[in-house]
Amino acid sequence: MHRRSLLALPGALAAAPAPAQTPEVDTLLVLAVDASGSIDADEFRLQREGYAEALSHPGVLSVIASRPRGAIAVAMVEWGSPGGAATVVDFMRVEDATSARALAEAVMAAPRSPQSWNAIGDALDHCARLLLAAPFRAAERVIDLSGDGPDLRSLRAAAAARDDAVAAGIRVNALAVAAAWQVTRLGEPLAETYRREVIGGPGAFVVNAEDRRDIARALRAKLVREIA
């Protein structure tokens, strides 16, 4: 398939100048969550609960409060189908327990989007555009992608989408939801595939979650590192 740079496509990664009155936060964070066909209803519920728990954890709130503006803004995107990534929770400001609880409730209440199989590159393109059109300003812009498999059917390869996001000043981190001993069809652990094809930017990293019951722990540690 012929793959053009995202920078040559309509809606390329070029942010419009933010109005002077746009509120500032320390970090703009998009949580790109795997909602593909490999996840059944019980696993999906565990995943949502893990995100809600991590986002409202006192340890995460403490790190947010320690930053210069004492606030971040978070959005959630679900991905899976080629070209089908969907924003299920738009940007919400988090600065204290009350706002974190509101975000957690929004995460739990959002309807599951219809998705099929593992188009990571398309998800990264969607998240990058969402960040660049955010209603907040921040020096740090991060995509935090979680998944249980490699990129399979993207209209654009994950690495190409990652490279364009990084060129636009966005860092891409990843959460590999797979036991360390499990390997992809490439014969390597999923975390290694994400390290090579998905993450990018200064300080980018991958965290491993053993399964969806482990997401809250892994994501909590990851959020603290990303925000701090």
From TrEMBL:
Keyword Signal among UniProt keywords: yes
Entry-linked Gene3D superfamilies: von Willebrand factor, type A domain
Residues annotated as domain VWFA: 28-227
Residues annotated as signal peptide: 1-20
Magnesium as UniProt keyword: no
Keywords recorded for this protein, A-Z: Signal
Entry-linked InterPro entries: DUF1194, VWF_A, vWFA_dom_sf
Protein name according to UniProt: DUF1194 domain-containing protein
Organism: Dankookia rubra
Organism taxonomic ancestry: Bacteria, Pseudomonadati, Pseudomonadota, Alphaproteobacteria, Acetobacterales
